[in-house]
Amino acid sequence: MTAPQHAADPGAKFNTHADFYSDSAYAAFPQQLRRGGSFGVTMMKVEQEPIDFIDAPVPEIVFCRGDSVMAEVLIDCGDGPVVSDRFASGLTIYPAQSASRTRVNDAHALTQFAFPVAALTDEMLDAGIALDGANFGRWIGRCLATPVTVSRLMDRMWSVMQKPEAKDHLLFDGLTLQFLAELSGASDLAPLGGARPEDERIARVIDYIESYFGDAMTISELAAVACLSPGHFSRTFKMTTGYPVWDYVTRRRCQRAKEMLLSTHLSIAEIAYRCGFANQSHLTRCFKSAFGKTPAAARQETRLS
Predict the structure, then answer these.
(1) pTM above 0.85, yes or no
(2) pLDDT, tens digit only, all 305 positions of the chain
(3) Which of 53, 168, 209, 231 could in theory staple to 163 by disulfide, Cβ–Cβ 3.0 to 4.6 A?
């Protein structure tokens, strides 16, 4: 077996993960880079040939999701090599300020999310989002089955990064905090060994919810989309997403309502209707429970800022 190659000069130092990718062997591969928000976050989409590289340390934690089917993947973040059968949506977390080795035997596509540890504020730490703490330490250097909610947040963040408006930078900051909170709170991350059939069915249900969240829906209807019994569906949905079905649906409706409050001039009553709430009062109760303020207060704060 051939020895791994250093992707960059072993003595080189890099200020960001993006700098490392642009000034190393990775520069030979197609890549798209986007930046957004106020935390110094960068995201990249890359397409790579088979690699066996030792990567230089960078001052960021890097979340790396596989976007294509890959065969055996070896990861070594300093604690010895871990070999996984890595499929699409596998998530690997690389620690900050540490060299690491990655070997992938196939051509592959990735989405990468680099978050500078120094950007964490006391407020974020108080909220229990600690990137280098126990929340993430046990997952460093592992290829994990990505929770559907986390994967979809990464896609949403990539999309929002295309937009230069100030409100989109605010939205990106909110999505970043949600991403970290979702991952920090995920208690059931497990090494990836192939997606369970139920996971694919739940992903289909989430697509359905995203498409029809403004309409009335029932557990039986969603279970039918998943081709599962209502009881099995409810248990599997909570195990996969971390939320009971209606908590998840209400959460997504509130998030969509918040986006519309900040980006449109629609009345709150109209937003409530479009987001699937029974009326404005129903939206107000759910919104205040989710965000600690009423829709009117959230809109007013945005206008004042």
Answers:
(1) no
(2) 578 899 998 888 999 999 999 999 999 999 999 988 888 889 999 999 999 999 999 988 888 888 876 667 788 877 677 777 655 567 888 888 888 888 888 888 899 989 887 665 444 554 455 544 444 555 666 667 666 777 788 888 898 888 767 667 788 888 887 787 777 665 445 554 434 445 677 888 888 888 888 888 999 889 888 877 888 889 888 887 778 999 989 988 998 899 889 888 899 999 999 999 999 999 999 999 988 999 999 888 876 55
(3) 168
Q: Which domains does the chain have, with CATH numbers?
A: 5-185 (2.60.120.10), 200-303 (1.10.10.60)
